[in-house]
Amino acid sequence: MRPPPTLPITDRASQLGGVVRATSLLEQGYSKHRLARAVEEGALVRVRRNWLALPGADPHLVAAARTGVVLSCITAAERAKLWVAERPGTPHVAYPGSGRVHGPTAVVHWQRPVVPRHPDVLEDGTENVLMTVAACQPYEVARAVWDSALNNRLVDAQTLRRLPWTGAARRFAAEATPWADSGLETIFVVRLRWLDLPIRAQIWIAGHRVDVLIGERLVVQIDGAHHVGPQRTSDISHDAELMLMGYHVIRVGYAQVMHRWEEVQEQIMRAVAQGLHRA
């Protein structure tokens, strides 16, 4: 017979993320009496028949346990620090494959996971997040999330391509790359593929990376919120160095790429028409 655990039940619950299945604690040797006493004393809160949580546990995980879902898609992508175009107003979740969903106020994804989910899981792993994103989001937004996962080394391209993807995810597994440093770069490159020119992200020139290089000489720098203060000064200095080396530099910002794309595209088209992308 397994001896009772010496670790306090609240410490073990904390190690498991703060929201745990009662069944899992019982399997680890905690008695029903210890669970009931922890609930009675307020050390644990019963959020659903088989789910317990520490007071103050992550409210998103608590809500997932209470409603019988798993955090996924763009919601889980944002929580994993992947690049997302906008914070979702409504949570995106996935059906865990068993049990009943208790009417969550959320977008529910019903796809079968590409990587099996353990019953204790309340938040999808990277591969399952990418699967739901592929089925849910517009191509360029989803591609930005996939590229971000590769760029942040949460997955690698070879592993992705070995998985049994279905639907839209097959295309992303074949096309996603780790080179874009932000989703803006991915979106920029995707939107200009029709030019049928070499368009490369994060290329080293003059000791610094440039965001995008079109052809051999047209550099596009895409400014995010961090391009202020010393960073901005460094960027201006690098722009000058690039121009002295014979490169043409176009600098655009987040709002232009996401909300005034026609202006950006017009600039690029005119630069290409003048041959500024050629050596």
Order of helices and strands: HEHHEEHEHEEHHHHHEEEHEHH
What is the residue-averaged pLDDT? 92
Unreliable stretches (pLDDT < 50, length at least 5) are none
Number of continuous helical runs? 13
Q: Level of helix content?
A: 40-55%
Largest sheet geometry: 4 strands, mixed
User: How does the overall form come out from the CA principal axes?
Assistant: elongated
Rg calc: 24 Å
Strand content: 15-25%
Span of the ends, CA to CA: 77 Å
Structural class, by secondary structure, is alpha+beta
What is the β-strand count?
A: 10
Record the strand order, biggest sheet: 7-8-9-10
Structural features, described:
This protein is α+β, with helices and mostly antiparallel strands and 279 residues long. The protein has 13 helices and ten strands. It has helices at 9-15, 22-27, 32-40, 59-67, 73-79, 126-136, 139-151, 157-162, 169-175, 183-191, 229-244, 254-259, 261-273, and strands at 19-21, 45-48, 51-53, 70-71, 92-94, 107-109, 199-205, 208-214, 218-223, 248-253. A four-stranded mixed β-sheet has the order 7-8-9-10, sandwiched between helices. A three-stranded antiparallel β-sheet has the order 1-3-2. Strands 4-5-6 form a three-stranded mixed β-sheet. Strand 2 (45-48) and strand 3 form a beta hairpin. It is elongated, with a radius of gyration of 24 Å. The termini are far apart. The model has no long low-confidence stretch (mean pLDDT 92).
